[in-house]
Amino acid sequence: MKTMTEDEELLTPAEVAKLFRVDPKTVTRWAKSGKLSSIRTLGGHRRYRATEVHTLLEGQRRNATE
Fold first, then answer.
1. CA separation for the pair 17, 14 (Å, rounded)
2. What is the reported pTM?
3. Alpha-carbon dihedral angle through residues 58, 60, 65, 66, given to the nearest 10 degrees
4. Residue 48 carries which DSSP code?
5. What is the DSSP secondary structure assignment for residue 3, as one 8-state letter?
6. 10-65 topology per CATH
7. Quick one: pLDDT at residue 34?
8. Is 63 exposed, middle or buried (CB count within 10 Å of its CB: 0-12, 13-18, 19+)?
9. Which of 13, 16, 30, 39 has the most Cβ atoms closer than 10 angstroms to its Cβ?
10. What is the Cα–Cα distance from 4 to 39, expressed in whole angstroms?
């Protein structure tokens, strides 16, 4: 399990959805299926590590160009 550092950037579902051009509910489904890991805030909202999101985005871009 990865530990979070204090300076690690977290993204909201809406921010992730905008990067991938999908609906925020799709991002939530990805988290539930294990495609993307999420962190829960004290209020129960999901947040996503920016580094992991950008890695996934790069992988999708590479697959699209192949």
1. 5
2. 0.81
3. 110
4. E
5. P
6. Multidrug-efflux Transporter Regulator; Chain: A; Domain 2 (1.10.1660)
7. 94
8. exposed
9. 16
10. 9
Give the whole-angstrom CA distance, residue 49 versus residue 13.
11
Closest CA to 28 of 41, 10, 16, 42: 16
CB distance 49 to 7 below 8 Å: no
Number of residues assigned to the chain:
66
- Residues of the chain where predicted confidence (pLDDT) is lower than 70: 1-6
User: Residue ranges of the domains in the chain?
Assistant: 10-65
Phi (first) and psi of residue 34, to 5 degrees: 95, 5
Distance separating alpha carbons of residues 54 and 19, to the nearest angstrom: 9
The DSSP bridge partners found for residue 50 are none
For 18, the token pair is: 């905008």
